[in-house]
Amino acid sequence: MNISTIRPSLYRSLRSAWIVLKLIIPIYIFADVLFYYGWLEKISFLFTPLTAALELPKEAALSIISGMFLNLYAAIAFAAPLGLSPKEWTILAVFLGICHALLVETAIMHRLKISRTYAVLLRFFVGLLAGWLVTFFPENWFGEGVFYNAPTFPSYETFAVMLLSSLQEAVVLALEVVVLVVLIIVFLDFIKSLETVNRYAKRVNTAFSLVTGTILGITYGAGVLISEYENAAMSTKEVWFVGTFLMICHAIIEDTLLFVIFGASAWVIVVLRLIFALLFSLAIVAYLTYRPAQSRRPI
User: Fold this and answer.
1) Dist. CA 174–CA 205, nearest whole Å
2) Is the dihedral of CA 13, 110, 165, 173 positive or negative?
3) How many helices (H) and strands (E) does the chain have?
4) Rounded to two decimals, what is the model's pTM?
5) Helix, strand, coil percent content, the chain, rounded in steps of 5
6) What is the pLDDT of residues 83-115, one digit of tens each?
């Protein structure tokens, strides 16, 4: 790969990274504002039916809502003092592993022409179904709890201080996204330029996007996915397959380890997320393939 071939890759990767950044920074700050004013805590009572369905203590409602709107670190910070059993930690991990950071990640999926309604409902109901399934697992499938110092929320003297801190954290995340997306897309284009790989380019596009998102997460993997989508390297069905899979199963290593250190079962979390991701991604492709042509419109 020479300079003339690298230049288009750099342009595409930076353009994709910029799209993701425009979504990450404002929504990241907005989520911090929600927490600063305590708005999430005020509506946590609405989630007590959910905790009951998952057989979690009602106090876990704030952990769930924080995870859904903010991130998994926020969820763990609220759940750590509750003295959850390994089984309860596993249930929480399965649900929130699928249904978390909805503000940011749903916006990213929308860039791929995947509707916000589909993204939110898919992740919520699949997370609920998978988490509810864990309630039927016998207790002896889970080990003893592991005690670990959970992350704590910083306290801010003023709104301006919070805003500055949030902006700094968002910028750091943004820089990580830019660097990683650029490296991955340039590497992917290099792989596709190889003569032996060229005939399998379609498979490379799909597989690479899938692996990137599954390991690194939607925030990072979406940059690659957006690039391939806008470059017409992936069909609509492939985008829906990968998008659906990643909404259910992404950042599988980091997300799982965050809960395993508190005693959650790694194999239950990983196996359930992979199975549900495969089933629902295959189902959406089947739907797109076999529905009547005249009824075909974006979900």
Assistant:
1) 24
2) negative
3) 15, 0
4) 0.76
5) 80, 0, 20
6) 889 999 999 999 999 999 898 889 888 888 899
